[in-house]
């Protein structure tokens, strides 16, 4: 008050003694969860799943247990895969009694409508049907974009049908080891006919062909091979070509297309099965041709069992499954080694910059 400016508050120097408000240096690279706790969590979850109970339930035809087992098969978690293998070991001796049918065709050909009509026909004949539908997947979420249960409403309500739309997770063609294992689980559950529906885009047909007994190709009338995206190689794999949607105004066009495809099939070399592939017309919507298709499938099975191709083909498929699984396991083990991915990145940089050759870098990585 004496005209002197008020004293400025003194700013205290930092104390060497840490206060409650001090930010202390942290520990770097702290794991989000203790390795011990993570291990205990895995062991708890593993012990909480009774594989014997699930396997017994599957063998009794329980679809809830079947769904649980397929979920374990499809999981990317190592502990889930271990549980799935325990279940499969118990199911495999009871598998192999079904007829496995692959059905393909480009989107829009009417696969789901056909399968629903075909499945309902077989159920009326007393068969149990399982449909493993390989859906296109979202590359972001790795989940199915389409759900086949929504497109096979009538069939999905039947107690004699099991429909499993499986996300392809962006894998080549959308099918792999997991589909094969799901087939064995469905057979163990007592399903007589296993249908594998593919998205009909790219390599999925080749993979499905290597895991089924009979391969059915659905086509449309009035569209050339280029428009339908069907390659010669896929037609060569087909045991039967069915021109779908052969009803109403489309019927004469379908009849003409059938004759054209029948002629084309004669130009291909005879298949190892000694079966003569043929072309017919059908209507998934109206049901025309469904009975004839099943009759041809039964003829195919009888013919190939008599000439032993049916049995030898399944052995070859099992061998292929073994080789593919072995390659996958070796690659997983290799990429899982400490420092391998860093070596690969460095090697790629040297190759891209022209400092080294591809073969030299690969040999160095494998040392």
From TrEMBL:
<dbReference type="InterPro" id="IPR005129">
    <property type="entry name" value="GTPase_ArgK"/>
</dbReference>
<comment type="similarity">
    <text>Belongs to the SIMIBI class G3E GTPase family. ArgK/MeaB subfamily.</text>
</comment>
<feature type="domain" description="AAA+ ATPase">
    <location>
        <begin position="97"/>
        <end position="269"/>
    </location>
</feature>
<dbReference type="InterPro" id="IPR027417">
    <property type="entry name" value="P-loop_NTPase"/>
</dbReference>
<protein>
    <submittedName>
        <fullName>Methylmalonyl Co-A mutase-associated GTPase MeaB</fullName>
    </submittedName>
</protein>
<dbReference type="InterPro" id="IPR003593">
    <property type="entry name" value="AAA+_ATPase"/>
</dbReference>
<dbReference type="GO" id="GO:0003924">
    <property type="term" value="F:GTPase activity"/>
</dbReference>
<feature type="region of interest" description="Disordered">
    <location>
        <begin position="1"/>
        <end position="28"/>
    </location>
</feature>
<dbReference type="Pfam" id="PF03308">
    <property type="entry name" value="MeaB"/>
</dbReference>
<dbReference type="GO" id="GO:0005737">
    <property type="term" value="C:cytoplasm"/>
</dbReference>
<dbReference type="GO" id="GO:0005525">
    <property type="term" value="F:GTP binding"/>
</dbReference>
């Amino acid at each position: 008050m004496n005209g002197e400016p008020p004293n400025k508050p003194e700013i205290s120097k930092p104390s060497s003694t840490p206060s409650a408000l001090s930010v202390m240096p942290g520990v770097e690279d702290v794991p989000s969860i203790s390795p011990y706790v993570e291990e205990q969590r895995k062991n708890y979850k593993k012990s909480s799943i009774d594989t014997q109970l699930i396997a017994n339930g599957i063998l009794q035809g329980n679809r809830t247990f079947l769904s649980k087992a397929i979920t374990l098969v499809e999981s990317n978690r190592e502990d889930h895969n271990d549980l799935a293998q325990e279940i499969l070991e118990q199911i495999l001796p009871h598998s192999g009694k079904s007829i496995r049918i692959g059905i393909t065709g480009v989107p829009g050909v009417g696969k789901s409508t056909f399968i629903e009509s075909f499945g309902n026909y077989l159920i009326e004949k007393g068969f149990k049907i399982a449909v493993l539908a390989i859906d296109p997947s979202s590359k972001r979420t790795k989940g199915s974009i389409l759900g086949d249960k929504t497109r096979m409403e009538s069939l999905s309500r039947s107690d004699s049908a099991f429909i499993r739309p499986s996300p392809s997770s962006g894998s080549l063609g959308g099918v792999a080891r997991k589909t094969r294992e799901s087939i064995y689980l469905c057979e163990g559950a007592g399903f007589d006919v296993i249908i594998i529906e593919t998205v009909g885009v790219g390599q999925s047909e080749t993979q499905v062909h290597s895991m089924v007994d009979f391969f059915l190709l659905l086509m449309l009338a009035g569209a050339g091979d280029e428009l339908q995206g069907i390659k010669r190689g896929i037609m060569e794999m087909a045991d039967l070509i069915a021109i779908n949607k052969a009803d109403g105004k489309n019927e004469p066009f379908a009849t003409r297309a059938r004759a054209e495809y029948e002629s084309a099939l004669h130009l291909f070399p005879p298949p190892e099965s000694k079966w003569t592939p043929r072309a017919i017309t059908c209507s998934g919507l109206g049901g025309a041709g469904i009975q004839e298709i099943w009759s041809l499938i039964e003829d195919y099975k009888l013919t190939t069992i008599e000439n032993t191709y049916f049995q030898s083909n399944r052995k070859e498929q099992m061998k292929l499954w073994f080789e593919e699984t072995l390659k996958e396991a070796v690659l997983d083990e290799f990429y899982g080694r400490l420092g391998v991915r860093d070596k690969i990145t460095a090697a790629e940089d040297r190759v891209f910059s022209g400092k080294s050759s591809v073969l030299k870098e690969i040999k160095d990585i494998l040392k």
